[in-house]
């Protein structure tokens, strides 16, 4: 393994020098006219060299690149750029605080052979230079690149040595190489050669200029040749990256007159939207709203009657019940008001394909014009999150139905574990078979574990004759892949032990050679973790050591799969291949392993910090304008899910959407859904309702973000769209702000803290850090994320065809820059985590991050697809479920006591949206009143009193109306949301279970943290494993004791005993008070019915609880009730048992 150091980075690490550079006036660009010669070089002419006529004219500084013509044909792709990209994909980049960024060239990444040419460590021919065993350079198909006509095999480093120090002579035939220009950029099939960077212009600025100056990059005549006249004059396009001919107003359809400079044939076509709103039928929604109003009025009258009619015999009981009922009414109102405007949405994928992937005058080749998507997968601990699960998620991403060259996958390993690293490498290797198989046979789902475990017929609707044979072979390969992945822990341990023993033997021999006469002491060498190529793993070791522990290791980036070629790479008929891939695109998306640097003394901010590191690294490496984040156990179930999300982002007005949230769906849940794991009431009722206001809340996974919204910018036209506090109920005044003179980029990139129309770009380093490459990528991401300007009503659009240009190829300096932005010190004195990226300071960083975006005026959309977009797993064990709810509730309490409280929201947030966020922070406090109310029936039965003086007609009428309206509201919610009645009831049950356990603990934890600064963590105290391994739901019956179970158990025991005491008291009484007994028993049964799933969870597996337990429980309850009556007999009786006598 060799390593390469990068002592100079793109980013200036000195903030002081940055400030000095920013204050200097920019140097005027050098005026250069360049022409590419047949040898591949650029010949530059100065202004003085031009003829007098041109020299005497007034013109602006610009650069012109002459397009390909018969006398100016581009040469074959140069070797250097492909070799550089191959070098990057075969290198493990490390670096961080006070350390040099290094690239470790790896011969192999995993023990098994890597077959795909895009994969790191892909197998290939060996260099023919004696003493060198490096791999020969190869192209995108894995075919050797041989720079000399004699076909002498030579690796990258030896080739560079031969050119620079060997006079450019081939070591094989001793002839000069025909082409030794190592400084030229490479191109793929048909790719136009880029110009050298003008002075003062970065790669990102050049890319933005190229996209903006390209009205139709690939516009060609009917013969297929480049049509210069039409490109320049009919579309008013421009050459290269300069300003030779700018469109009117300097933009595309965004001027003050909304002029759209598009070809006439485009304007004649009828414009079709990508999405539609499907309103709830008035026959359902109108009665629903009316019932809400009726119930609100009845609740007001009932509470008024309760206050005016106290129970003088038990004022304390009456007072507690009234306070609880007032809070419940307030809580219900907060939950119900945001549900008044539910909507459904639908997408049209055919229109998306027609607009972005169909040949047109602006895109004659039909190449995809869709924007890029960077997908983030986060994992932290391979012991808690099995690598096989993460690998399956990644395989479903790599096989997604989205343009391969526009897709990038980043895996964040916050634990820095070699196990995760090698599991990802194994997944990349298996993707060579799995992804083409999915494309060939239209496989759904594209998670191999889920696909091969499908209960339905796998051969249904499969028309290709070789499907059965292909499926059988791929299944066999997947089984082997699982064996290799599950065996990685033992493999890594054995390998590390073997290398460690070798190192000890070497050290012992060396010591014996140095010390001859003295006795030899045992040599102690730190037990390292070794990679497959025989070098130390730079991350966390199995036996932690200095700079190699979970919280102390270098930053790591490994390009597992290098960026694919720009054009489709179709498979060929090859008998050596496992399956026939003829006419199947075998390219794979970019796959990058990232483990951010961690050092002691730095707050790494858990998952939010890891996500922000991915945001920065991806901005430098691929800079997709959209980001999809998934948990490691949430895989893509619908391969077209990203296309459906993109319909919303690319539709008219989509530039004001900050994210598209997909519902969470789960697998492996018990059929009865005992603990409401599906959470359908939240995902299908509450979230649909919020979609009718400003949009759903962000729930942590399955969310497609707009990158610039994560950067903390305001939505476009935020000065024009200023909704105000009550704009959801009343019309809002439209602010007329002059934006005509504002530069287009600054108009779309505004921060809320600045009222200036033109944003001061010099302040960006203070917000985003001192990486100039990262800052340069921001306007590029903003431009690429705009909708198509294919209609006069589309504001802030981009020209069709602008995204058909190929992306920049990776080079080593780019990855080195990415290493610097994932270092532990990069966020110091910046706004990352405060206003930029995922927000820090809460265990529920997802809700806070979404709240901040809505607070700036962004909107979000809820995308419910016909086939579930994503699926994941959820804890079906009672204790695990309670701890999950505890974490959510703790985050809500933290939000309530922070500046993210919805009471402090900006005027841009609508009233109903503000109420919804207020409910998010308040709902855990309902547990205090819920606990009291659950004990009230027992206290009523114990005391012989009730919350009202008597069960009169008025009280019963109010109770009946409130109950009936609640049931009717539930039925109507079921009607417009599509959930089942059983799911609604399960949600009600777990609301009480969670409210009396996890929510109460969260409130106590939050209050202690705010008042006393004490943090309490609720952990499992004991565990008992399930015996039945074959049972899919074995974990459901495992009983794990936790302190969260104490309040519900107490409530159940007290209410059961109270019922027995109440019956005994009434039976023994001279004048039985049956009305009070019935009232107390009714409410006790209401509490016990809600706690029934909790009781089942305590019993464990059905039939395994001994009968004697129930017998003794009944006897103890009877004994305690008799003892209570004996100690406190009914009034008017002096003897035990009163007047009751056995017959």
From TrEMBL:
The chain crosses the membrane at residues 916-939, 951-972, 1049-1071, 1077-1095, 1107-1127. It is a multi-pass membrane protein. The keyword Cell wall biogenesis/degradation applies. Gene3D superfamilies: Spore Coat Polysaccharide Biosynthesis Protein SpsA, Chain A, Zinc/RING finger domain, C3HC4 (zinc finger). InterPro entries: Cellulose_synth, Nucleotide-diphossugar_trans, Znf_RING/FYVE/PHD. Residues 1-36 are annotated as: Disordered. It holds the Pfam family Cellulose_synt. This is Cellulose synthase-like protein D3. Residues 1-20 have a biased composition (Polar residues). Keywords: Cell wall biogenesis/degradation, Glycosyltransferase, Membrane, Transferase, Transmembrane, Transmembrane helix. Its main location: membrane. It is found in: Endomembrane system.
């Amino acid at each position: 393994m060799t390593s390469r150091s990068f002592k100079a980075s793109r980013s200036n690490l000195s903030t002081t020098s940055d400030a000095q550079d920013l204050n200097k006036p920019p140097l005027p660009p050098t005026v250069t006219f360049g022409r590419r010669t047949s040898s591949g070089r650029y010949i530059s002419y100065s202004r003085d060299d031009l003829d007098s006529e041109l020299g005497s004219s007034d013109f602006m500084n610009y650069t012109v690149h002459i397009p390909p013509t018969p006398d100016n044909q581009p040469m074959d792709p140069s070797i250097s750029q492909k070799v550089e990209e191959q070098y990057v994909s075969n290198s493990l980049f490390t670096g961080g605080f006070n350390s040099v960024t290094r690239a470790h060239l790896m011969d192999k990444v995993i023990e098994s052979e890597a077959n795909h040419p895009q994969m790191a460590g892909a197998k290939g021919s060996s260099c023919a230079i004696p003493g060198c065993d490096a791999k020969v350079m190869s192209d995108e198909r894995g075919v050797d690149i041989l720079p000399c006509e004699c076909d002498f095999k030579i690796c990258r480093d030896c080739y560079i040595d031969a050119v620079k120090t060997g006079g450019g002579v081939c070591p094989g035939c001793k002839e000069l190489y025909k082409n030794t220009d190592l400084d030229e950029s490479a191109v793929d099939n048909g790719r136009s050669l880029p110009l050298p960077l003008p002075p003062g212009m970065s790669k990102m600025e050049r890319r933005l200029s190229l996209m903006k100056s390209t009205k139709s990059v690939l516009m060609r005549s009917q013969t297929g040749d480049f049509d210069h006249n039409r490109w320049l004059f009919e579309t008013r396009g421009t050459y290269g990256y300069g300003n030779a001919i700018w469109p009117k107003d300097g933009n595309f359809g965004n001027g003050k007159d909304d002029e759209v400079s598009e070809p006439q044939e485009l304007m004649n076509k009828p414009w079709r939207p990508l999405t539609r709103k499907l309103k709830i039928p008035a026959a359902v929604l109108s009665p629903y709203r009316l019932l809400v109003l009726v119930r609100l009025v009845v609740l007001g009258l009932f509470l008024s009657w309760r206050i005016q009619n106290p129970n003088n015999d038990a004022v304390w009981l009456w007072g507690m019940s009234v306070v609880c009922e007032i809070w419940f009414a307030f809580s219900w109102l907060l939950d119900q008001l945001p549900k008044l405007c539910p909507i459904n949405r639908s997408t049209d994928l055919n229109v998306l394909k027609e607009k972005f992937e169909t040949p047109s005058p602006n895109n004659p080749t039909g190449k995809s014009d869709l924007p890029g998507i960077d997908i983030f997968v986060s994992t932290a601990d391979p012991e808690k999150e099995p690598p096989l699960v993460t690998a399956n998620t990644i395989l479903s991403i790599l096989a997604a139905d989205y343009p391969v060259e526009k897709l990038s996958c980043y895996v964040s390993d916050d634990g820095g574990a070699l196990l995760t690293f090698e599991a990802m490498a194994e997944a990349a290797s298996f993707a060579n078979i799995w992804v083409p198989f999915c494309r060939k046979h239209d496989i759904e789902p594209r998670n191999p574990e889920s696909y091969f475990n499908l209960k339905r017929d796998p051969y249904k609707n499969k028309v290709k004759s070789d499907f059965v044979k292909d499926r059988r072979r791929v299944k066999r390969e997947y089984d082997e892949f699982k064996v290799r992945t599950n065996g990685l822990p033992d493999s890594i341990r054995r390998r590390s032990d073997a290398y460690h023993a070798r190192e000890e033997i070497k050290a012992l021999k060396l010591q014996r050679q140095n010390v001859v006469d003295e006795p030899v002491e045992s040599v102690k060498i730190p037990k390292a973790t070794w990679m497959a190529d025989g070098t130390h793993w730079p991350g966390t070791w199995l036996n932690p050591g200095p700079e190699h522990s979970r919280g102390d290791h270098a930053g790591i980036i490994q390009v597992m799969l290098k960026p694919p070629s720009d054009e489709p790479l179709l498979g060929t008929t090859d008998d050596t291949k496992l399956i026939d891939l003829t006419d199947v695109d075998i390219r794979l998306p970019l796959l990058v392993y990232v483990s951010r640097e961690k050092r002691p003394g730095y707050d790494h901010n858990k998952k939010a910090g890891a996500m922000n590191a991915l945001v920065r690294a991806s901005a430098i490496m691929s800079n997709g304008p959209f980001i999809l984040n998934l948990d490691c156990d949430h895989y893509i179930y619908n391969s077209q899910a990203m296309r459906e999300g993109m319909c919303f982002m690319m539709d008219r007005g989509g530039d004001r959407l900050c994210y598209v949230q997909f519902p969470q769906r789960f697998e492996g849940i018990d059929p009865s859904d005992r603990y409401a794991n599906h959470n359908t009431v939240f995902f299908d009722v509450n979230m649909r309702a919020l979609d009718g206001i400003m949009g759903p809340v962000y729930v942590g996974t399955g969310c497609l973000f707009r990158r610039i919204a994560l950067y903390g910018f305001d939505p476009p036209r935020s000065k024009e769209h200023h909704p105000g506090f009550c704009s959801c109920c009343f019309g809002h005044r439209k602010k007329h702000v002059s934006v005509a003179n504002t530069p287009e980029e600054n108009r779309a990139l505004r921060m809320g803290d600045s009222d200036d129309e033109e944003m001061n770009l010099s302040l960006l380093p203070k917000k985003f850090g001192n990486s100039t490459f990262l800052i340069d990528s921001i306007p590029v991401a903003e431009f690429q994320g705009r909708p198509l300007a294919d209609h006069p009503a589309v504001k802030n659009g981009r020209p069709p065809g602008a995204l058909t240009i190929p992306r920049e190829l990776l080079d080593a300096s780019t990855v080195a820059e990415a290493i610097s932005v994932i270092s532990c010190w990069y966020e110091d004195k910046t706004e990352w985590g405060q206003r930029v990226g995922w927000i820090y300071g809460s265990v529920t960083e997802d809700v806070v991050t979404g709240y901040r975006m809505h607070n700036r005026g962004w909107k979000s959309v809820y995308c419910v697809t016909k086939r579930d977009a994503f699926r994941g797993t959820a804890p079906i064990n009672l204790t695990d479920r309670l701890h999950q709810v505890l974490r959510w509730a703790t985050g809500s309490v933290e939000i309530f006591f922070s500046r993210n409280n919805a009471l402090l929201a900006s005027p841009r947030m609508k009233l109903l949206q503000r109420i919804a966020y207020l409910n998010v922070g308040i709902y855990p406090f309902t547990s205090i009143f819920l606990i009291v109310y659950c004990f009230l029936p027992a206290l009523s039965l114990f005391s012989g009193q009730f919350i009202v003086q008597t069960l009169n007609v008025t009280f019963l009428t109010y109770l009946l109306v409130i109950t009936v309206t609640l049931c009717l509201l539930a039925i109507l919610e079921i009607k417009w949301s599509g959930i089942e009645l059983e799911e609604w009831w399960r949600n009600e049950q777990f609301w009480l279970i969670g409210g009396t356990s996890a929510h109460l603990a969260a409130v106590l934890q939050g209050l202690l943290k705010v008042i006393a600064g004490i943090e309490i963590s609720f952990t499992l105290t004991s565990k008992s494993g399930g015996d039945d391994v074959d049972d899919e739901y074995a974990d459901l019956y495992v009983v794990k004791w936790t302190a969260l179970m104490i309040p519900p158990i107490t409530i159940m025991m007290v209410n059961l005993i109270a019922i027995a005491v109440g019956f005994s008291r009434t039976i023994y009484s001279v004048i039985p008070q049956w009305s009070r007994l019935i009232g107390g028993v009714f409410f006790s049964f209401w509490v016990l019915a809600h706690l029934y799933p909790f009781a089942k969870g305590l019993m464990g597996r059905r039939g395994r609880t001994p009968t004697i337990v129930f017998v003794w429980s009944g006897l103890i309850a009877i004994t305690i009730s008799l003892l209570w009556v004996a100690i406190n007999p009914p009034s008017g009786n002096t003897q035990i048992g009163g007047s009751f006598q056995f017959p």
